[in-house]
Design brief:
alpha+beta; 6-stranded mixed β-sheet; metallopeptidase activity; Metalloprotease TldD/E C-terminal domain-containing protein
Length: 271
């Protein structure tokens, strides 16, 4: 579902979707999200160029933080020596509140399957437990080179050989509500979506993007939408110091289920 907000030369497009292999008979939740986005975006707010605390919504997590992690846990990239966590197996790399796994066994999800493209039965693979790296994602070839077992992540198209590919990334929820996160912020941002973050140094974890949809927080409440604002940071630094993880999770497309993430500092540049 998509809607737009137009004021003079200012145009904002918002949208929400839900995907499932099960018939969807209830669309109220999707409609409510779109209406909430339009309501929060009615007012304009400005920010100064300085580091600010930030709350990433599930869509914000997807647009800013997930691609570097998908690359870092790819067994092929690990074997090539290009993953920044490739030699950190069993070591703490992230905040101890963070848990992440890859799961191709969840019922009715588009990325779930009985087996991967090499016939290996699907499984749930823990990748981060209490902040420590526990596994990487392998197909048969990369698993053999790494002297381990396939994690059922072999993926191929008609014209190529199998290669490791994630199914669905799942981040474990915490115990803090979104309202509690916002109430804790004196001045900061809520990031709903970034544009261009994938053009950073993905392997190194660096990202920089324009805030396509985001809101300013003042004294514990959202006061308006920000424009002409760029944020930048490093995924590994952000996820090393997580203030809180949201108590509710949401699917973003078919590849990610995540709660909100509340981080202490993100570089902000505004006009």
């Amino acid at each position: 579902m998509k809607e737009q907000l137009v004021r003079d030369t200012d145009m904002l497009f918002v949208g929400e979707s839900e995907s499932s292999c099960h018939p969807l008979t209830e669309t109220k939740a999707v409609t409510e999200v779109v209406l909430q986005q339009l309501e929060l975006a009615k007012n304009r707010a400005s920010v100064l160029s300085k580091p600010l605390p930030v709350v990433f919504t599930p869509r914000g997590v997807a647009s800013a933080l997930i691609l570097p992690l998908m690359a870092a846990f790819n067994g092929k990239i690990v074997l090539e020596g290009a993953s920044p966590i490739g030699n950190r197996l069993g070591q703490p790399v992230f905040d101890e509140k963070l848990w992440l796994w890859d799961d191709a066994t969840i019922a009715y999800r588009p990325e779930s399957r009985p087996c991967d493209d090499e016939g290996i039965p699907s499984q749930r693979t823990p990748l981060i437990e209490q902040g420590s790296v526990t596994n990487f994602l392998y197909d048969l070839q990369t698993a053999a080179l790494a002297h381990t077992q396939s994690t059922s992540n072999g993926s191929r198209n008609r014209g190529g050989l199998p290669t490791p590919s994630p199914s669905a990334f799942i981040i474990k929820p915490g115990n803090t509500t979104f309202d509690e996160m916002v109430n804790d912020i004196k001045e900061g941002l809520v990031i709903e979506q970034l544009m261009g973050a994938e053009q950073g140094n993905i392997l190194n974890g660096d990202f920089s993007g324009n805030v396509l949809l985001g809101y300013k927080v003042e004294n514990g409440r959202i006061v308006g939408r920000v424009k002409d604002t760029i944020v930048s940071g490093n995924v590994y630094q952000l996820l090393k110091q997580i203030i809180a993880i949201g108590s509710e999770t949401k699917w973003v497309g078919s590849f990610l289920q995540t709660p909100h993430l509340y981080c202490p500092r993100l570089a902000v540049a505004a006009k």
